[in-house]
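Aggregate trends can hide what the representation actually does to any particular protein. In the encoding step, the backbone of a single protein was reduced to a row of integers, each denoting a local shape. The record that follows shows the chain in one-letter code together with its fold in token form.

***
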Amino acid sequence: MDVYHKAYVYLTCGTDLLVFSEPDFPHVGLQVPGGTLDPGESYLQAARREFCEETGLSLDIALESFADQDRILKNVPDCLDGLHRRRHFHGSVREKAAEEWEHFESSPSAGGPPIRFRLFWIDLFASDVTREARFFEGFGEQLETLRSRMERQSNGRH
């Protein structure tokens, strides 16, 4: 089985989380910016690069690894079959660049033409966010860990 090393950024502003959908593929659930490591690249370097490629924004804040995840993908359209070894990073900003915008991923890891992303913010603590079905292939599994982490930080415990 092929193994793909992946890095993702869970960017928050207050209790809001930056996510994206793919308007041209409405069946695909919500995702967070990130993707495949390039040869010789660390997880952190890939997280920063992929964030920029997928959002159009630079990321000059601290990122902390908060969860790892192994996910086997097989026969998922436009995804590489194999083990996706994911490292999830959290970063926080004080202000949003915008409430919503579109950006094109010009070099998808599975190849093909650019993919249109619609980026927007969701409230991590809203009741409808807890449904895993809204998220694509396991991205929602990290939300409870992220919520707990944010609650600890807001209470002064790191």
Residues 66 and 146 are 8 Å apart (CA to CA). The longest helix spans residues 43-55. The chain has a mean pLDDT of 91.
